[in-house]
Write a structure and sequence with these properties.
Blueprint: H1 6-11, E1 19-26, E2 44-50, H2 55-60, E3 68-69, E4 90-91, H3 93-100, E5 106-111, E6 116-122
Antiparallel strand pairs: 1-2, 2-6, 3-4, 4-5, 5-6
Length: 134
């Protein structure tokens, strides 16, 4: 479990200022039993973080994002303790596209009552264009 915020801020600057992160970065296709490492690993970056008070309400009220009720799908069991139950998660395809810039697959769920974001992405690009594996 990672709790550093800087790698997330570099990948998701459009979300805003993040704090209290709990996240994982791993290759979901790597069981650790293969004799040769995956030649083209796809790193899943999934987790949750807090936004400043009121930030989520402001985001979900933005026209064009089309937020609807949507719970995070299949978060890793290590993250379960950090995802509030009955959070009233919302997600919107327009918001996902804004954050990812259509450069990588990703889904972002927001909880207005707790000012939390839950993200689930594959190979999220760093905004400056580089893409180190962390």
């Amino acid at each position: 479990m990672r709790t550093d915020v800087e790698p997330l801020q570099r990948r998701f600057p459009g979300i805003g200022s993040l704090s209290d992160p709990h996240w994982l970065g791993y290759d979901p296709n790597d069981s650790g039993r293969e004799p040769i490492p995956d030649q083209d690993p796809r790193i899943r970056v999934v987790g949750t973080a807090r936004l400043p008070a009121g930030a989520v309400r402001s985001i979900v009220s933005t026209p064009g994002y089309a937020f609807e009720p949507s719970a995070p799908a299949r978060p890793p069991k290590e993250l379960a303790a950090f995802l509030p139950e009955h959070a009233g998660w919302l997600a919107g395809a327009g918001y996902d596209s804004r954050i990812t810039g259509a450069r990588y697959p990703g889904r972002f769920h927001l909880a207005p009552a707790t000012d939390r974001v839950c993200f689930d992405t594959v190979d999220p690009a760093i905004v400056d264009g580089s893409h180190p594996r962390q």
